[in-house]
Amino acid sequence: MTTAPVPNFRQDAQVIGLVGLAHGVSHFFHLILAPLFPWLKEAFSLSYAELGLLMTVFFIVSGVGQALAGFVVDRVGARNVLFAGVGLLGVSALVLSQASNYPMLLAGSMLAGLGNSVFHPSDYTLLNKRVSTARLGHAFSMHGITGNLGWAAAPVFLTGIAGFAGWNMALLAAACVPFALLLLLFVYRDVLRTDDIKPTASKHAEAPGGHVLDFMRLPAVWMCFAFFLITAMALGGIQSFSSPSLRALYGMSLASATAGYTAYMLASAAGMIWGGFLAAKTSRHERTIAFAFTAAGVFAVVIAAGVVPPMMAVVLMGAVGFGAGIAGPSRDLLIRAASPKNATGRVYGVVYSGLDIGLSMAPLLFGALMDADHPAWVFIGIGVFQCMAIVTAVGVGTNTARKAVKASLAA
Fold first, then answer.
1. Quick count: other Cβ atoms within 10 Å of Cβ 62?
2. In this model, does residue 21 exceed pLDDT 50?
3. Cβ pair 32, 170 in contact under 8 A
């Protein structure tokens, strides 16, 4: 029996920083094309449907790839898979920068989706195996914050360069980001090693039946998948249509409506910081999630009612984001508790594929609501999905607690 490693602050900080930086770059590439749509539409004479298909292709490839990447992570190691994903993001930006027709744009979007697919199973495997248990709550909160920062940085970076140098140069500059990250990760590659604990995986990686797919028979895994699918539907609604919905409901200017989305993102990051401290103090993470999403759902419905002044609606957008952010670290620890021993990559890969599926479906649903002139239903839908997520979180927590009790009685 091996003893647990002595908590090392420097190692923990390095791992959290490197993995967080990688996560930020992956979220940056979620928006590698959307900010450039005005330029691409004109350059290739594309319809909005064709532009939207580029994003749908990205998330479909990422979702399918993510479920498969988890198995690869458990077999060859998280570090190797992370390196491959970062490299693919760089290649995808190079392909997109040289695109001369729509099929090349589709090919570049597919490559970006494939590169993006590796990050959650790789990141969470690295954090779970290389960060001290006492600091995991903070690690997960920083992981979420860096993702939000990646989302925030992409539009500024890409539109800023495209405005004076064109969309090709913007994408060429974007390609430098993952390649620079890859160099940094290689320099600190020893910090991200997990091969020292791989030998135990062959004996214990599988669920009780002994097969590599047996973890998929666990109800908690599919409740986690449903949780991510549902929360991604809410997130997708906010990302895609919160601004036009606010303008329709409150007669806001574009700048004010955009400020509402910015308030959501900044407050979400702040909520993740607080959520990290809350997650470190309890093992019943479903309770934190239930409280946070209940508050966020109620605030979303208040926005939908249109009964508050426009500036208060912007403030409430921040409140919705703060609630969603608080739930983030508890969500990740909840999944960790539900994962079979040494099957972290597979579980996170399958579970997080629900995020990509939800993000690919949400624009279709909320876009239809906007086309039908029901902007209030956008926020009602967001609130409903957040409240629905509570049911799955409580189900996962209850299932995990029941298993822990059985294990203690059997010991």
1. 31
2. yes
3. no
